[in-house]
UniProtKB/TrEMBL annotation:
InterPro entries: WD40/YVTN_repeat-like_dom_sf, WD40_repeat_dom_sf, WD40_rpt. SUPFAM superfamilies: WD40 repeat-like. WD repeats lie at residues 88-125, 242-267. Keywords: Repeat, WD repeat. Pfam families: WD40. SMART domains: WD40. The keyword Cell wall biogenesis/degradation does not apply. This is Mitotic checkpoint protein.
């Protein structure tokens, strides 16, 4: 079976999916205020931790613990085997994004309170820095799961008003670069290329931009943007938000998930779509590749892009990835 649904899915709005370091577990967060951990092989929930507020994001610290960010502003460290939970600290508003950067051994959180915080999960006073951002943080990324760490631990922060800041986590107080998104509408997702040479941004207008970190004119000439997740609805061409982007750790291709229910896989280097997976019954809200790239987690969960309406129940799928779906095709004449 190449794809299957996990049992006992969230009941209200999946916000994030994230594989564990070995790829045999999957953490899932949602608006139903519960953190779920699934055994990927059996598709069953093995840990369910009720929370005081809806959860917006999650990331693994190691195989036994995860960080979560919640709408109440709390950043929490959860012991998956012990069930012990520790509040590391607070933002003044909802924590939209959470990532753990192994290169510096620190957690990173971005919030609607217009700040980025760094956390040392080993210490009692966990917050080691607070850094103002130009607007509400909507998305951030720290490396690509499973990929070798880049030369510098780079975080890409995308905020409201189309700001994009690139920061070195060793010196986060001053951005390396301040940019404006090449996309005309609000950023919804960002993901780094394996190796950290660039990143992809997705927006609510059904477009993706591929950008490069190197500020030289030669490197910047390679950046581009393209339309995606667009279809005809009732005879009208409609653009759907791009909710999620994730890079394949070995091949450097990337997947996008949109409110049209589709997952597309792209060869960014050659500017081609490799495949389109079968349509889900509702919006694709979140995506994640496992660290070895053999699996893709897909959250099908309505994101209210068309307001209140009848919708399919939330579901989380795990797909065993075929090489043809994610590996760039050899150019004619290549050996």
């Amino acid at each position: 079976m190449s794809e299957y649904a996990l049992s006992d899915p969230p009941t209200d709005g999946v916000t994030a999916v994230r594989f564990g370091p070995t790829g045999d577990s999957l953490a899932v967060t949602s608006w139903d205020a519960a953190l779920r951990l699934y055994d990927v092989a059996t598709a069953d929930v093995v840990v369910r931790l009720p929370q005081p507020a809806p959860l917006l994001d999650v990331d693994f610290v190691d195989a036994g613990s995860v960080l979560s960010g919640a709408t109440d502003g709390g950043l929490r460290l959860h012991g998956l085997e012990t069930g012990v939970e520790r509040v590391l600290g607070w933002h003044a508003s909802g924590v939209r994004c959470v990532r753990f950067c192994g290169a510096v051994g620190a957690g990173v959180s971005g919030s609607w309170d217009r700040s980025l915080k760094l956390w040392d999960v080993r210490t009692a006073e966990a917050c080691v820095g607070t850094y103002a951002q130009p607007d509400k943080v909507f998305a951030l990324c720290v490396g690509a799961p499973g990929a070798p760490p880049p030369p510098a631990p780079l975080v890409v922060v995308a905020t409201a008003a189309r700001h994009v800041h690139l920061l070195d986590l060793r010196r986060p107080s001053e951005p390396l670069q301040r940019r404006e998104s090449a996309l005309k509408c609000q950023t919804r997702a960002v993901a780094q290329m394996p190796g950290g040479l660039g990143y992809a941004l997705g927006s609510v207008e059904g477009r993706v931009a591929v950008e490069y970190v190197d500020p030289s004119a030669e490197a910047q000439a390679r950046k581009y943007a393209f339309k995606c997740h667009r279809t005809v609805v009732d005879g009208v061409g409609t653009a759907f938000p791009v909710n999620a982007i994730c890079y394949h750790p070995r091949h450097g291709t990337f997947a996008t998930g949109g409110c049209d229910g589709h997952v597309n896989v792209w060869d960014g280097a050659n500017k081609k779509r490799l495949c389109q997976l079968p349509r889900k019954p509702t919006s694709v809200a979140a995506l994640a590749f496992s660290a070895d790239g053999s699996r893709l987690a897909v959250a099908a969960s309505y994101t209210y892009e068309m307001g209140e309406r009848e919708r399919a129940p939330d579901a989380v799928y795990v797909r065993t990835v075929a090489e043809a779906e994610v590996k760039p095709k050899a150019k004619r004449g290549d050996s």
